[in-house]
Amino acid sequence: MPEPVVEPLGGHEYLVHLLQDGDAVETVVRASPAFLADVAPPGVAESQVISATMAYLLSKQRADELPGQLDLEDVAAAYAGFADSLKSWLNRKTP
Hints:
By secondary structure, the protein is α+β, with helices and mostly antiparallel strands. The chain has helices at 33-39, 46-58, 72-78, 82-93; strands at 5-10, 13-20, 23-30, 69-71.
């Protein structure tokens, strides 16, 4: 599966373009500033957080099973280890 394409929409919202079996799938992802401050080390772009989130979710389910809209805080509520996994991954990616 090709890497997701993350398109900023403004206001901490992103349109994520995915492919599943040749079909286009789009999901709007919201990231609250408080959640971002909690998981992202300084210097990490919001789009990196969104990309890492999509990689996490796609390891758990297919792109066409994702909702049309999701909030990172809802993902954290649904997956107990998500925030810690995301934080750890982002810290490894930061120079």
